[in-house]
Amino acid sequence: MSSQDIPEENLPEAQGDGHGSVEPTKDNPFADPGLPPHEHRIQDIDERAAKRSERVVAMLFTVSMLATIGFIASYVTIDAHKSVYIFPLGHISALNFALGTTLGVALFCIGAGAVHWARTLMSDVEIASERHPIEAEPEVKAQVLADFADGARESQFGRRKLIRNTMFGALALVPLSGVVLLRDLGPLPEKKLRTTAWKKGLKLVNMNTNEPLRASDIAVGSLTFAKPEGLEEHDEDFQKEIAKAALMLVRIQPDNIKDKQELEWSHEGVVAYSKICTHVGCPISLYEQQTHHVLCPCHQSTFDLSDGARVIFGPAGHALPQLHIAADAEGYLVAQGDFAEPVGPAFWERG
């Protein structure tokens, strides 16, 4: 609300040259000195200066758009392990430096453009407004809406199309930086949790000796851990793959195997089961020779390897998956395919 709109009886007595100002006197040293005379900016009186400011604001918004595109391009093209030397920071991640620089420029240019727009092109006329009750009168509400319309008009938002369009472009592109970062959540699992590295014909390799296994290498009552042929510890995805493909081998007298399918999928009494507990995925490592039971050390789930690895104690939800094995022409134990069901916790039973 401007001073001209304030009711006359509410205006202080004008004794000075300011807008409704009252000159301080000896009797009233705290009188309102009022507002100083308004000074017009160069952009208010020179359209060429206004155009220059418009171009500066548009340039800042355009730089913001280019920086956002640079952010996305850096994220896609720069190797996460690459480092560069930046004085005086030293050796730092090239990806982090590029992302920080481009996103910083994008956000700074939007802010700088908005500030420059407000300071040079939007109205800067001083307005005096008296305090009023929190609940506005209908006349005040109408005045506020009118002032808002005046502000929108004076901001020249509709007139300065170059600023408006470049601002919309900058604001539309900046959120893409956050969208692109969603890639760090990782790819969708698809069916990767349902399959392992085991395939038909892959040899069973001893985890300790890194040598292929024969049935004769496994004594009755012993426990041996195996991995798929070709899976090496120096492989980048070794931990991810072995977490699903880890295998334990136990040799049981064929007469002691109770489950028909287990007997058919074994070779000379050697049975192969997933080492991953079906409760929360802990590695199973404890074997009771006399009972043919294996025990998970985390929550004591117990499985009977002579009876299809069914659960006989503990919180595990289902039996350990068995790997169908056989011997090749050289006598080495080989897989006849992947596990018949996903290994580990029973996520797959729910969908």
From TrEMBL:
Keywords: 2Fe-2S, Cell membrane, Disulfide bond, Electron transport, Iron, Iron-sulfur, Membrane, Metal-binding, Oxidoreductase, Respiratory chain, Transmembrane, Transmembrane helix, Transport
Assembly, per entry: The cytochrome bc1 complex is composed of a cytochrome b (QcrB), the Rieske iron-sulfur protein (QcrA) and a diheme cytochrome c (QcrC) subunit.
UniProt family annotation: Belongs to the Rieske iron-sulfur protein family.
Lineage of source species: Bacteria, Bacillati, Actinomycetota, Actinomycetes, Kitasatosporales
Top-level taxon of origin: Bacteria
Protein name: Cytochrome bc1 complex Rieske iron-sulfur subunit
One Pfam family, short name: QcrA_N
Spans annotated as Disordered: 1-39
Transmembrane segments: 56-77, 97-118, 162-182
Start-end of Acidic residues biased regions: 1-11
Function text: Iron-sulfur subunit of the cytochrome bc1 complex, an essential component of the respiratory electron transport chain required for ATP synthesis. The bc1 complex catalyzes the oxidation of menaquinol and the reduction of cytochrome c in the respiratory chain. The bc1 complex operates through a Q-cycle mechanism that couples electron transfer to generation of the proton gradient that drives ATP synthesis.
One GO CC annotation: plasma membrane
Primary subcellular site in the record, as a coarse category: membrane
Annotated localization: Cell membrane
Topology relative to the membrane: Multi-pass membrane protein
Rieske domain boundaries: 244-334
Gene Ontology MF annotations: 2 iron, 2 sulfur cluster binding; metal ion binding; monooxygenase activity; oxidoreductase activity, acting on paired donors, with incorporation or reduction of molecular oxygen
